[in-house]
Automatic annotation (TrEMBL):
<keyword id="KW-0472">Membrane</keyword>
<keyword id="KW-0812">Transmembrane</keyword>
<protein>
    <recommendedName>
        <fullName>DUF4181 domain-containing protein</fullName>
    </recommendedName>
</protein>
<feature type="transmembrane region" description="Helical">
    <location>
        <begin position="112"/>
        <end position="134"/>
    </location>
</feature>
<feature type="transmembrane region" description="Helical">
    <location>
        <begin position="12"/>
        <end position="32"/>
    </location>
</feature>
<feature type="transmembrane region" description="Helical">
    <location>
        <begin position="53"/>
        <end position="72"/>
    </location>
</feature>
<keyword id="KW-1133">Transmembrane helix</keyword>
<feature type="transmembrane region" description="Helical">
    <location>
        <begin position="78"/>
        <end position="100"/>
    </location>
</feature>
<dbReference type="InterPro" id="IPR025441">
    <property type="entry name" value="DUF4181"/>
</dbReference>
<dbReference type="Pfam" id="PF13789">
    <property type="entry name" value="DUF4181"/>
</dbReference>
Length: 135
């Protein structure tokens, strides 16, 4: 495979950032429409020790996934961004599961289940977009 030179890793990260911001805005709109509890952008409310430990592990994996993009993103754009997509999907799924198990407001679970679906769609669109913009 031919080695790609340039700033493809930076372009991939900017694309990820724009998709994450768009996903967060859509999620906030869904939470508001479904009368779910509003969450802050950078809040970390854990339900129990398992949730806290899993969240910490996923945050370390998220940092590793960003380094993975810089290491392999220029040579293999899809393979370079795949760990990040997987970690983000795991984080959203963990949040939906914990809301289902422990949240008092059942609308929270339903809203986060929709968030899992939207995140999967955004991840698919992101991978297809990366394939198109990076030669």
């Amino acid at each position: 495979m031919e080695v790609i030179t340039g700033n493809e890793s930076l372009l991939t990260l900017l694309t990820i950032g724009s998709f994450l911001i768009l996903n967060k805005l859509i999620t906030s709109t869904i939470l508001g429409k479904m009368k779910a509890d509003k969450t802050k952008w950078f809040s970390s409310t854990y339900f129990n020790d398992f949730h806290r430990q899993a969240g910490i592990i996923l945050n370390f994996l998220l940092a590793f996934a960003f380094f993975w993009i810089f290491a392999f993103g220029e040579v293999y754009p899809v393979l370079g961004s795949a760990p990040l997509v997987v970690v983000i999907l795991l984080t959203v799924c963990l949040t939906a599961y914990m809301k289902w198990r422990h949240a008092k407001n059942r609308a929270n679970y339903k809203a986060y289940l929709l968030n899992v679906a939207f995140t999967a769609v955004f991840a698919s669109v992101f991978v297809l977009f990366v394939i198109q913009i990076i030669p």
